[in-house]
Amino acid sequence: MCYAIPAKLVAIDGQTGTIDYFGEKRQILLDLDDVAVGDYVYAQGGVLVRKIPPKEAEEILEHWQTIFFELKKTDAALSKIDQNKLSSNALAVLQKVNLRKSLTPDEMLSLFNLQDEQELKVLYEIANNVRQREHGNSSCIHGVIEFSNYCSNNCHYCGIRKDQELPRYRMSIEEIISAAKEAVDEYGFKALVLQSGEDFWYDDAKLITMVREIRKMGVLVFVSLGLRSKGTYQKLYDAGARAVLLRFETSNKDIFAKLRPGTNLADRVQLIKALKAMGYVLATGFIVGFPGETNNDLIQNILLAKYLAPDMYSFGPLIPASNTPLFGSPKVSKDLILKTIAVMRFIDSNSNILVTTALETLDRNAKQEALLAGANSMMINITPKHYKELYKIYDDKADVTKEIKQSIQETVKMLYELGRAPTDIAAHAVKTRPSGQARG
Ligand code: SF4
């Protein structure tokens, strides 16, 4: 996982480059032709996204040379565990994870069945410790632009399903490009997620223009468009999209068929595999808390997610929107999501795990707690405010009324408090760092 600060390219081997952040090395895909050893670059999701003039890079790095290490100290302190205090069960889990041995389904089930507050605390602490060991304090921060709330599907829990009555919007390609430009130029984002319902008004030509123009801005272009043909996804890859988010939602065929009418689990899984094979940086995962779902289903979900070998996992709590068939279903507990994140961290210790915005809607503190339970990746909603309010996939969406600047500042502040994610997103947010905040 990359930091969102400049790195120096120190070696090139074919399409693979080695970059250096203050002595810390990472491997990346060289997705630009015109680069040479010694160049300063930005990389995101393991992909080189932009070259930076040396003077500009050196000025930014001068700002980071102390803070970079301070953040690491904070993160290391917060992720320390005292093995002497672990129960024999907790120690056994840790030892297996440390030896990179997979947990058995029964062992996973025993973790999902934990209820005792102290035992849960230990579970999350171990997951956080494994995250820190694998990734250090790096974390992705993606900006997400929700560009259309039209959808041709009727999922039983979704607030923008076809039959839902609500004001609909479609951003024009020019508006999307302009929102992306603002995110890059004004706020410093290096990775943008372009997300919509399954809206076929955006044909290949429109999507290609959108991706091509945004890739030119020197960012990782992440698409989240739902089921589209492999041909479309291939064209978008060729236009410069390098990452894709497509969750399979549940591995339980019956639940899938009942709650996502007209769509098919097998097709979705096939597409996810094809996207990986095309070379996309793949994010996938599932929803937690469907009615009738058991802990065994969650374990099967985790196993399917691992089998798909993504670069990033995404788990959202079920929050059925008003006026949808599932509205009024029992609320998912925050601990069930945190357990899912922690167990996923044990099952695929080197993975990237996203904190979804839905999690924040479930509970104000959940974002921070998820980052301390094994998660290491974030999204900030940067959809223009008048559209953001209409992308109501679930009720009471966190962040809809906030200005983008405020969301960025709050996120960066929280990440600094946790010693995470050196990022020059929003230089203004960096400059307003309260003194001493990153000390550990
Ligand atoms: S969950 Fe996705 S595919 Fe289903 S209705 Fe909502 S936006 Fe459409």
The number of helices is 16
Q: Strand pairing plus helix content: what structural class?
A: alpha/beta
Radius of gyration, in Å, reads 21 Å
Give the ordered list of helices and strands: EEEEEHHHHEHEHEHEHHEHEHEHHEHHH
Q: Give the strand line-up of the largest sheet.
A: 6-7-8-9-10-11-12-13
Q: How many discrete domains?
A: 2
Largest sheet: 8 strands, parallel, barrel
Judging by the overall fold, what is the CATH architecture of the largest domain?
A: Alpha-Beta Barrel
Summarize the structure.
The protein has 440 residues and is of the alpha/beta class. The chain is built from 16 helices and 13 strands. Helices cover 41% and strands 18% of the residues.
Keywords for this structure?
single chain; 440 residues; alpha/beta; SH3 type barrels; TIM Barrel; 2 domains; eight-stranded parallel barrel; 18% strand; binds iron/sulfur cluster
3D architecture notes:
By secondary structure, this protein is of the alpha/beta class. The chain folds into 2 domains: 46 residues, SH3 type barrels; 297 residues, Aldolase class I (TIM Barrel, Alpha-Beta Barrel). It is 41% helix and 18% strand. The chain contains 16 helices and 13 strands. α11 links the parallel β11 and β12. α2 packs parallel to α4 and α7 runs parallel beside α9. The longest helix has 25 residues. The radius of gyration is 21 Å and the shape is globular. The C terminus is likely disordered. The site of iron/sulfur cluster has 10 residues, from loops. Iron/sulfur cluster binds next to loops.
